[in-house]
Amino acid sequence: MNPKAGSTWLLAALAVLVTVAAACGSTSTPSATSKGTITVAGFNFPESSILAELYGQELAHGGYTVNYKLLLGTREVISPAIQSGQIDLYPGYAATDLEFYNKGAGEASGDPVATTAKLNTHLQPLGLVALDPSAAVDQNAFAVTKATQSKYNLTKLSDLAPIGNQLVLGAGPECPTRPFCQPGLEKTYGIHFKAFTPLDTDGPLTRAAFKNGSIQVGLVFSSDADLGQLGLVVLQDDKQLENADNVVPILRQAVASSDVKTLLNSIDSKLTTADLVTMNSQVELLHQDADAVARAYLQQHNYFS
After folding, report:
1. Do 115 and 250 have their domain in common?
2. CB 267 within 8 Å of CB 114
3. Which of 120, 125, 214, 236 has the fewest CB atoms nearer than 10 Å to its CB?
4. Among residues 193, 216, 234, which one ends one of the domains?
5. 74 and 211 share one domain
6. How many CB atoms lie within 10 A of CB 265?
7. Where does 140-284 have alpha helices with state H?
8. 3-state secondary structure of 218
9. Is 26 in contact with 57 (CB distance < 8 Å)?
10. What's the CATH number where 189 sits?
């Protein structure tokens, strides 16, 4: 599970309230008469700010007054805030949110539609709803260099099965015992590597090992900002080994009108993982502001025309 979307279970209720109250917020108000006010929150990492801005700016363009509480914190902060009505909406991740709200019951799968449906069975009693999952996903993934991709004509994980015994896998030291890492690659795809090198989980050691050629396959996150800069290509998880951490808006049922749903689903119907990688790189590597990056994306995709 992607630690960017993970949780820690250590925050007390008082800390939740203090954090929500102290969170930095801003407001986007449409020029026409407002249809209502919606407060959009985000987790404490840049990708979540970008997604919150995408949703918020589309809602503002649609006639709503939008307040932002970006970088609000982990799910232990955001979940109580949305249940209490202090916020109305946040960009979630289907599988991780499901396993948060079901307290780790293991219901998530690689199917984003089924995973979102199960998520909604847990959200409904809380007065919340998850909308349509997008194609954009931020989850564990396995990458190769462009040179390795070209040499073996690789596009998906299944392509590794015939040539895995020529390649070295690099990942965190827990990979040989984790069902979504080496054992999963063996069981689901029949991939048996030449060797395994313990490194870190999507960190500098993995990147250095790609660069010096000591590994050919490495564990990354699918929406990492620096994939293109590093010349890495994520292989398609064509047999859905990883749980479906597709981006999905989660909001209070009280604000989930048909109009709001239509506006938010219009974002998710077009958003791709490649879009996430591009926008993440603009914010994290080029140091652009999340609101400007989101606005440019919406303009380029004719949301504001």
Report:
1. yes
2. no
3. 125
4. 234
5. no
6. 14
7. 146-152, 182-189, 204-212, 227-230, 258-268, 273-284
8. strand
9. no
10. 3.40.190.120
Residue 111 sits in a domain whose CATH number is 3.40.190.10
pLDDT, one tens digit per residue, over 247-286 is 999 999 999 999 999 999 999 999 999 999 999 999 999 9
Q: What is the pLDDT of residues 190-202, one digit of tens each?
A: 999 999 999 998 9
Q: Is residue 305 part of a domain?
A: no
Degrees to nearest 5, angle at CA 194 with 192 and 198:
95
Q: Is the pLDDT reported for residue 72 higher than 80?
A: yes
Residues in the chain: 305
Give which of 3, 1, 122, 129 is closest to 74, Cα–Cα. 3
Is residue 210 scored above 80 in pLDDT? Answer: yes
Structure tokens at 51: 């997604």
Residues whose CB falls within 8 Å of the CB of residue 203, separated by 6 or more in sequence, listed in order:
none
Domain that holds residue 155: 140-234
**Mean pLDDT over residues 137-148, rounded?**
96
Cβ burial, residue 91 (10 Å; 0-12/13-18/19+): buried
Angle subtended at Cα 10 by Cα 70 and Cα 224, rounded to the nearest 5 degrees = 45
Among 210, 234, 258, which residue terminates a domain? 234
Place of tokens 């709803």: 129
pTM equals 0.87
d(CA 15, CA 81) in angstroms, rounded, equals 11
φ, ψ (nearest 5 deg) of residue 298: -65, -40
